[in-house]
Amino acid sequence: MVPRALKSALFRLLAGMSSPPPLTGDTLPSFTGLQEVGLYLHVPFCKSLCPFCPYNRLLHSADLYALFEQAVYRELDRYSEILAGCRINSLYIGGGTPTVSAEGLLRMIARVRRAFPTEYPIAVELHPLAAGRAVLSSLRAAGVSQASVGVQSLVDRELQGIGKNYSADVAREALYDSLEAGFTVNADLMFALGGQNDASWQQTVAKTLEMGVHEISTYPMFSFPYAQPNAGLHAPPHRAPEKTLRKRLEIARITAEEKGFERSTVWSWTQPNAPRFSSVTRHRYVGLGPGAASMTGNSFYMNTFSVPEYASAVESKLPVALAMRIPSRLDRAHWLYWSFYALRISRIDFATKFDGHDLDHEFGRLLRPMQILGWLAEHPDGYAVTNSGAYWIHRLQNAYSLHYLERLWGACSREAWPKEVQL
């Protein structure tokens, strides 16, 4: 883990403060100046719960799903007024298992498209057991163009070791069927699993790429105390040694690049000219559903995790459990954080988004040492993250994300309306 003093020093370099403002239950979100935004829809239901998953999820119930679906429509009605005149640039649907009720998901997609009728790409996460051909065909007909399949591994013993309820053959079939249906397909793969070795990891990466997927995204195994505590795991998850994490990520890089893929984020590789698939690099986004997060530039906020409380709250207001007002420097730091993730830091993009601010003047004290360390290289429009830099940025962002998720999502999972959380 990153020492607290180092976290504070890095945050001060990024945001000009030692820690972010607290999220509180009485802070109201602001939408002032919001011109373009991505939409996120969180479907929190699953047929079974993965032991390591940190996201807001619960076992599917027809009655609870019906309550959730109607509440999403009421929340959508509120945002159709709030975001009137705002350009929608994407819709990303995650979970949970978004296709746990394919009919319900199709109805919600149709309602979003009626509320925001312009053209934008729609992406959905797929569980291999909830990605039948009829479901995929219906999603394509509804305008969904991108699919991310939660493969995790193509080795049966590794899937069993993390409590997965499907086989490698089922995962392969979901990939083939998604490609056949015409989606741009990303495959999620996990490394540093219990029982995994370098050879089995390389085999999973190579075989996945050979199927014709457009992108792979690779993640280390992690766990959270507030997630379902190790249930279904053959052994409690543990943090792999640093050299193992680095080697597995390097195996993914070499294998992908040998097959003509290009590194598109710190942990993803994409076919040349294929659309990039990412749920996290939107500059501004608004989340619908219980447990969804939003970032408007002026505010960052979280919806309540509780489905009944979400449904009750949205009758009279936005179902926001916690919100934070974002100082302008923190907003610019947020942009830089995700630019590191996307491997390109553009001076022109920074100046365009932030009223002519100069990137080097604002963040030179951070960027110059990263150049000296070999993490960044000069780029015609700014900086490019090197392979060495991508690894260390991956590790730092992973450590920050684990801290952030444990504090914020942990609090929201324990009570519907927390009073305050300090990240």
> Proportion of β residues?
15-25%
- Give the biggest sheet: 9 strands, mixed
> What's the number of extended β-strand segments?
19
N-C termini distance:
15 Å
Q: Output the number of helix runs.
A: 13
Give the integer mean of the pLDDT values.
91
Give the % helix. 40-55%
Radius of gyration: 21 Å
Low-confidence stretches: 228-235
**Content-based structural category:** alpha/beta
Report the principal-axis shape: globular
Q: Order of strands across the widest beta sheet?
A: 10-11-9-8-7-6-5-2-12
SSE inventory with pairings:
Elements: H1 4-15, E1 23-24, E2 36-43, E3 45-46, E4 58-59, H2 62-82, E5 87-95, H3 102-115, E6 122-126, H4 133-141, E7 146-152, H5 156-161, H6 168-180, E8 184-191, H7 198-210, E9 215-220, H8 242-258, E10 262-265, E11 268-270, E12 285-288, E13 293-295, E14 299-303, H9 307-313, E15 320-325, H10 328-341, E16 344-346, H11 347-353, H12 359-372, E17 376-379, E18 382-385, H13 387-414, E19 420-421
Parallel strand pairs: 2-5, 2-12, 3-4, 5-6, 6-7, 7-8, 8-9
Antiparallel strand pairs: 1-19, 9-11, 10-11, 13-14, 14-15, 16-18, 17-18
Helix pairs in contact: 2-3, 2-9, 7-8
